[in-house]
Amino acid sequence: AVLVESLLVFTVVLSVHAVVWDRFSWCAVALAVQAFYVQFKWDRLLQLGSAVFQFRGAANSGLLPASMVIPLLGVVMKERCRAAGIVYFERFGIVVASTGMLLALFLSVLAVGITKPVPTNTCILTGIAGSVIIYTMKHSLTVSEVIEVLEVLLIFVYLSMILLYLLPRCFTPGEALLVLGGVSFVLNQLIKRSLNVIEGRGDPIDFFLLVAVIGVVLLGLFFTVLFTFMDSGTWISSMFFHMMTAVLGLGVIMPWLYRLIQRNPLFWLLQFLFQTQTRLYLLGYWTFLAASACGVVFYQNAKRSSESKKHQASTITRKYFHFIVVATYVPGLIYDRQLLYIAAVLCLAVFIFLEYIRYFRIKPFGQTLRHLLSLFLDERDSGPLILTHIYLLLGMSLPVWLFPRSCAPKGTLPGAGALVPYSGVLAVGVGDTIASVFGSTMGEIKWPGTKKTFEGTMTAIFAQIIAVALILIFDSSVNLNSSYAWILASVSLVSLLEAYTTQIDNLLLPLYLQIMLMA
């Protein structure tokens, strides 16, 4: 299964390399080769329990698929912005690619360093790949860009040491690279933009995303440290939690956002949300869907009898939420992507805040949330945090957030790139859902080395092709320019990756589909 997963990732890397064919795509190929070998060292460390931190069990290290996401995103973003003639974002794509490669190299060096006896061949391979990448960076990046890349690496090292120690068994090494690498990059961007504020420069919705993500992460770190010294389950601690949340929100996050957007954040947000009649309709519709999702949770818990406390929700039941999320995102993508962008940021902040309340047992809702959500746990929620619903939201939202709007003057990219914002809907909302439902109910032929079925994967590919046809009918901004073969190949590759990967597919699949469509 690991070999097939690696083969699929190599196919994506070589596909991007064939389209781009520059020094950075060659570096991506070198990085993929060394990550393939180092991945087996990480897997061995996890099996022996010799890794530095406690990682999530029942999964391989996932180093290769995770290592390639950020570099490939940077490479395809650079190429798209170069074609559009937007030099600033072309340079930004180069910084993203370089940062992703350096973070992946750091994890590789860490694995090689703690493996006993020292794997000589892997050390040589990692050294060669690292030399090629650093040589390319030396001749491609300015001094300020090199400093920016090193800043992200420094933040990543410190953040990894803190969060992987505080949150054992929540991530595989690959998931930690993706999640913590992304947070480190966002934090560095926020610091950089806060120190260089120019009035009227930058889109407020981008600042809103940066401040919201870093705000909830800092909030979690603050309370994690605080509640190591006091019991979080008492009423006094709970009142202190709510009071300090208000103080940090109104005293730190709001002024920070005010400095960036140069206006009152609350007034700006209210004006933005209620700007048009379409937005009012969408907000009302989304409120109804949110109430429906809560209704599913309460109904499933009501079915749990006192004799079956260990009862867990079935795969099909959990996929109800995937259908609800698809119904949420598709109208937003068609009618108002900016509103969807902001609504997804707000929803992410609420999800993470509710997870803090559940994790710390904050009264009056902490214990209730623990009871309600325990029904929907699966083997991937082996750590103290429940992250699968947050990963689902991230998987659907990242293609919207990472869409290079400045390099798409007409609001959409040409060819297959027009489907980039729909990557989450196609890969997770349609493909993963259909594969799980049909595979678990009608699947008989299993893929070698996995529990996934041939029928589920084929049905997922077919369903995504139908979804693309429906998008073409209902979204007039999408024009594929006869790039149907590339779309079919992209969808097929990602569907096969879903069958073989043991990483969090909600997070990984949309990013790989986005990379393929942008290429």
- In total, the number of strands is 0
Q: SSE order in H/E notation?
A: HHHHHHHHHHHHHHHHHHH
User: Please, what is the average pLDDT?
Assistant: 87
Dominant shape: globular
Portion of residues within helices: over 70%
Instruction: Enumerate how many helices there are, as a single number.
Output: 19
Please state the CA-atom Rg, rounded to the nearest Å. Answer: 22 Å
C-alpha termini separation: 26 Å
| Beta-strand proportion | under 5%
Broad structural category? mainly alpha
The biggest beta sheet reads:
none
Low-confidence stretches: none
Report on the structure:
- The protein is an all-alpha fold and 519 residues long.
- Among the domains are: 1-161, no CATH class; 403-518, no CATH class.
- The protein contains 19 helices and no strands.
- The protein has helices at 2-20, 23-48, 63-84, 87-114, 120-138, 143-166, 173-195, 204-226, 235-261, 265-273, 277-303, 315-335, 337-360, 366-374, 388-401, 423-442, 454-474, 484-500, 505-518.
- The longest helix is centred in the first third of the chain and has 28 residues, at 87-114.
- The model has no long low-confidence stretch (mean pLDDT 87).
- Keywords: Endoplasmic reticulum, Kinase, Membrane, Transferase, Transmembrane, Transmembrane helix.
- One of its GO terms (biological process) is dolichyl monophosphate biosynthetic process.
- Its main location: endoplasmic reticulum.
- Its EC number is 2.7.1.108.
- It is found in: Endoplasmic reticulum membrane.
Summarize the structure.
The chain is an all-alpha fold.
List keywords for this structure.
19 helices; mainly alpha; about 525 residues; about 0% strand
